Amino acid sequence: KEARTLGYGAVRLKSASSAVDFYVRMGFQEVADAKEQDWELQELGFTSAPEMELLPLQMEENERKAAERAECREREKAEHKARQAQQLRRACESREMDVFSIVGGEDKGGIVVRVGQDLKSEATADRLSCGALVQELQVQGERLQYRRLTGSGPESGWVSTQLKGKDLLVRTDEQPGGSAADFVWEDEEVPIERRTAADDFARLKRLAAAWRDHVGKAGCQMLPAWIRPDMMKLMFCWNMAAPGAWYGLDFPATIEHLEEAGPAWLTQALHKAGTLPKTNSVTKFVKLKRLPLSGKHCAGGAGAKAFLTVEYEHSDPALHTELFVKLPWGMGSGTIDEGHNQKWRIIISSSSDESQELTIYRYMGPMLPFRIPKYYYADINRDTTNWILITERIMFLPRDGAESAAPFEVLPCASKYLDFELPLQLQSGMYYKIMRAQARLAAWDKAGLFDCLPQDIRGTDMIPEKAWPLPWPMKITAKRREKLKSDVQPLKELLTDFVWGVASKIFPEYIADQAFRDYVMKLMEEASPYQQDVQRYACLDRNQYALQHGNLQGDNAFFWYDSQGELDAGLIDWGGASRKTFTSAMLLSLASMEGELLAQHEAELCKFFCQEYAAEGGPEVSPDRLLKNYRLSRAVGVQGSAGLVTASIYPAVERDVWPSIEDKMDPRCLDHWECRCFYFQIINDMKYLYQHRQDGFDFCEYLGKFRQEENLT
Predict the structure, then answer these.
(1) Residue 381 to residues 147, 229, 247, 305, 574, Cα–Cα distance (Å)
(2) Cβ distance 162 to 142 under 8 Å?
(3) Do 644 and 527 fall within a single domain?
(4) What is the domain extent for residue 313?
(5) Residues 270, 367: one domain?
(6) Which of 259, 272, 499, 551 has CA atoms 20 to 30 A from the CA of 377?
């Protein structure tokens, strides 16, 4: 409609990935409809913005251009199909998991590995150790291309299967990644009446050392490589049971299917995972309770979730009877509370976040510097994109039970962005424990304590390592900066309309101050040309880059007091964990903190993080530099908040509805998970900026000083 109003006949999206990105942002039904417009929708790609070209009406070149574009699309289709075939072949090979044991080279420290298939290709410096397990990628005659699973030597390469008639490697049924049943660890706990957070941390260190030794010997069974799913096919297979890549067992695709599969399936699954002794079994599902996926106390936005109470044939204090189950969104016609959300299923299936969470629970859990729920079972099928995760259930106290909590009882769950409902001491205290957890995680990563695990488990498949040193300052022309400044104008109008217009009633009255409004608009205009510079600046210090939880807000942690009244924390929800800058992790973690509190505590939080990082062996990081990175990122991030209005708020609650909403807790907006997350984030952003301005801190001046110090044009 907008194109025709301007006198254009069509909008041509210039690549398949841009088209699908555009359609997905509109919703899945439009993706399906777009199939009729001759688009090959087997590829789902996300770009910062779809590339478009407007085609004028009644132009003689239209037919010629259309023919050229049709030819280009056909070429794209052919290239895409070739890529899909190659990826599918790799995935199928990986899924079959043909495993070989190296039996040759015992007297020479292993067998020779070459870079290529040809025997004359370059040999690697290291040999593949005798006894190592490798996964077959392809075989050409007596040459095998492999991926190493256990042992030492090159991660991949080509080896000979025989030498002078003797086998150098043989097929084996042995699988890497010994089960939890293979891991025996005994360690006495300090009695609960005098146990402290320091005691728990010391015990976690001992457990981590033992688990590292176990995994180093047993190896890790890597999942097949992620491939872009066929979204049209997904519509037909989202509710199909299919064999998992790890254990080869068909697993339920929905909570209803889990209930139908019953104790017999769960027994088999836990036996496969090695988390239930073969001499024991699950005899009964006592209760299966689906968790709410909308409303004030929504259980999150990653998929369907449930609590499962079970009985075992033989009671065992080492086995939890209260379990937590997590599954992907369904794509049927059911409601969100019934576990169906097409939009988010597409988004999540189009990333490797969930496989990342599964591998962290299976392999990293016991070697982390904080508590996470005990792993019982997980698996994924790359073809259907279905997955399942079963862990212990964290037993949160009722929401009114925080004041009467006994030592080591888990405090009530923090609802997303509703920190103000918690006791005041928790509203800030829990973020210090979140920062401590992130700092310890980063320090242990820097110290190499996770090096026994493949890089992909630490998220490097999602976010490749940066190539330091990074160029600085960035070469951005004055013309480009002027363009960036002019581009922010629509976002300024959008934020003004939402905060000081249709949704003004959900904001504190003081936000309506005209001088503050002018200040926010000025900040957006002055910051917009320097967003890339600030992002790059936060990456310059390699010491501020390590493994971090991907979304560590209060609702993705659980808290308790020790016997001395000290607050401690454990972490959940590991999708998206990867190596990243501390600044980017802090931006996500602190987004849910009340704006005024954040303005008061951010300097101390940065200082506390750096102290904890150093205490666990991390390299020296300046708290002032970390705070500077964070504040600069907040300065340029206001325009991102504005973009949330059309991306996530108005799709759930239309603009015309907002004038009738008089309170931020109105169920019409609060009950929509995605909408609620982002309008509360904007509220917190405004309160944060206002508090700083009241305290005499001007972000415009701060940004200007940064530009001057770094000689940015």
Answers:
(1) 20, 11, 11, 18, 19
(2) yes
(3) yes
(4) 192-393
(5) yes
(6) 551
Residue 473: asked if its preceding bond is cis (omega within 30°), the reply is: yes
Tell me how many domains the chain contains: 4
Domain termination residue (choose one: 94, 109, 143): 94
Please state, rounded to an integer, the average pLDDT across all residues of the chain.
85
Give the list of residues 6+ apart from residue 68 with CB closer than 8 angstroms, or none.
none
| Closest residue by Cα to residue 440 from 335, 604, 585 | 585
Per DSSP, the residues of 388-431 read EEEEEPP-BPPTT-STTPPTTPBPPPPPTT-GGGS-HHHHHHHH
Q: Tens digits of per-residue pLDDT, 511-564?
A: 999 999 999 999 999 999 999 999 999 999 999 999 999 899 999 999 999 999
Tell me the H-state helices in 538-591: 582-589
Q: What does the DSSP 8-state code read for residue 542? A: G
Q: What is the pTM of this model?
A: 0.78
CA 142 to chain centre: 41
Cα separation, 215 vs 217, in Å, equals 5
Query: Residue with structure tokens 């794509």?
Result: 331
Same-domain pairing of 47 and 163: no
How far apart CA 427 and CA 157 sit, in angstroms, is: 52
The radius of gyration of the chain from alpha carbons, rounded to an integer in Å, stands at: 27
The stretches in the chain having pLDDT less than 70 are 1-70, 72-97, 150-151, 173-182, 184, 186, 352-353, 459-467
Q: Please give the pLDDT value at position 40.
A: 36
Both tokens of 22, joined, read 């555009």
Rounded Cα distance, 618 and 636, in Å: 28
User: For residue 56, what pLDDT is reported?
Assistant: 52
Q: Strand 133-140 relative to strand 99-102: parallel, antiparallel, unpaired?
A: antiparallel
Q: Residues 551, 565: one domain?
A: yes
Whether the CB-CB separation of 544 and 626 falls below 8 Å is answered with yes
**pLDDT value of position 29:** 41
Closest of 153, 212, 187 to residue 444, by C-alpha:
212
pLDDT at 144: 92
User: Rounded to whole angstroms, what are the CA distances from 412 to 423, 448, 637?
Assistant: 11, 35, 31
Distance CA 109, CA 127 (A): 7
pLDDT of residue 656: 96
Residue 21 located in a structural domain? yes
Q: Which residue has the tokens 């990456």?
A: 539
* Statement to judge: residues 507 and 604 lie in one domain: yes
Same domain, 116 and 247: no
Q: Which residues pair with 146 in a beta bridge?
A: 136, 157
End-to-end Cα, the chain, rounded Å: 39
Residue 200 token pair: 């728990």
Tokens representing 188 are 């006495």
